[in-house]
């Protein structure tokens, strides 16, 4: 009877182990799912803030330009010059040459984009001034199409060209500094684009009567023409824009006001590339923690993509095959192929996009746009005049891969345990009850949730082996749970890591000594002039709050431009561009960063009613970068390039940016520099320096 009772207890114990393992599996699955949703939500919120900050930044910069004396004067004088050309008219032979240029250069490109040949008459300008100015600044422009903006004076002797030679270099520099794709001025009375930087085929056309009267730029100009408010901004969503080859273009406009009346509209043309770069993390999905299948994308109110999904960039054949498999139309696929982008052409109508466009934030497992189960986090964006949603997702199969492995192990361990019980049940009547009582007690502790339990192995016979198998199974389950918990902590730690993502990944992989050489980067040092005297009588808390507010704004600008902040020392700020991920235009990005830092410092000083200026030094060249420390990591730079950048700052002029020859040589055609001559540099002697004018 005792043996039978013991056999029954062993069988019940085995069943308890299986049930407890199953419960542990489901608890582990729920914990991993929550961790993935938390990570996706954190990534979505970060990218949402980046996109919103991008629009807030360019809105502020466009308002500032629209209220400047330069833009007000240019608007008034360009209007008069264009009206003079309209009254003079354009000779028939000049009109013919412009028409021939459209037929030979513009219509073939539109045919490839549209998939059909459009009528030439649909795109020809209206009135005399557009023909005259497009002939001199487009048809006869000696520069290639992408560099037409370099022509300052067409040399035709007109009043317009005289004004253009004065204002165009200033407007071109403003557009380049801010990073606008194009900068245009519209006449609110005629709706005509009386000036553009890029000189595309919309130059001097009418948005009321011309070929682009139905384009989104016409809507932006019409709205801002009626608002005599210097703080007003009119933003229109992305749409395919013919003058830019059908690329997705959005427009942001601000009224130009003189004596309380709107005399013009300043229009910024926004390319989708900047937003796509933010949402895709410069297409570095793995470094941002999205694994092999994760990513993020934007969707507009028409359920069309506003940024490219990851699959489009990584494997286009697979991307188009997935679209076909979920029933996308041939027209949709053909449009994506012709335009070379899914933006404005791929329809993403999922549970996540519908909820987010309805203004609801949430997480859940859905069927994604590729037709596969997906874990997603979604929510709307707070951008005036735009109704966008952002979705961060990862395939369910990848997210639950550790759980699938745990399930296989549980089944294997459970099956082995049942075999052991069946094999030993025949001779349990001859076994000692003591070890079995220990095993039964251990099973009960395990089923009660004590996953660290173990039973003593008193014998070397089958009962001892059963006890050993039980201990091994418990240890294996405990280790699997530890792996899952550690994975969750690592993912959370990556989000909070202060190191650059690639460096953090190398540390996580176990690399102990990180030191790399970079052949070409750009380093900047910035220092607040007079800060020590300014804050000598301020309480310590106020000093910290003042510096934190300023440097936080620096950090936002650095993040927007893809620049790595290295450190701050007192009232000094150090940053680098071109590492740990190389960038071809690192010098241009850093100079833009320096300009923004000077403007930010001016604004911060005005907001706090103090007198304070910033001095910035910039240098390009090779550096060595590495991680110092064991418990508190610091990522730092060394080399002559760093030292000379520091000397450019310390030997610079307050409220200015001073650069070395390597920076000047790279950017002299993009920015305006004033030579300062050779200045004395500690440890270097005389070194040439230039001051950036902006």
Feature tags:
membrane; Cyclic_nucleotide_synthase; 694 residues; alpha+beta; globular; Adenylate/guanylate cyclase domain-containing protein; 49% helix; A/G_cyclase_CS; eight-stranded mixed sheet; five-stranded antiparallel sheet
Q: Give the termini distance in whole angstroms.
A: 98 Å
Principal-axes geometry comes out as: globular
Low-pLDDT ranges? none
How is the main sheet built? Answer: 8 strands, mixed
What's the total helix number? Answer: 21
Strand content: 15-25%
What is the CA-based Rg, rounded? 33 Å
Q: Can you give the helix content as a percent range?
A: 40-55%
* SSE-based structural type: alpha+beta
Mean of pLDDT: 86
Overall number of strands = 17
Description:
It is globular, with a radius of gyration of 33 Å. The chain has helices at 2-66, 69-88, 92-114, 128-139, 159-178, 216-224, 272-280, 310-314, 316-325, 330-339, 351-357, 396-399, 401-424, 433-447, 462-496, 501-508, 531-535, 540-561, 586-607, 640-650, 661-667, and strands at 182-186, 193-196, 234-241, 247-258, 261-271, 295-299, 362-367, 373-380, 389-395, 515-529, 564-569, 572-577, 613-628, 634-638, 656-659, 672-681, 685-693. Strands 10, 11, 12, 13, 14, 15, 16 and 17 form an 8-stranded mixed β-sheet that branches. Strands 2-1-5-4-3 form a 5-stranded antiparallel β-sheet. The chain is built from 21 helices and 17 strands. The protein has 694 residues and is of the alpha+beta class.
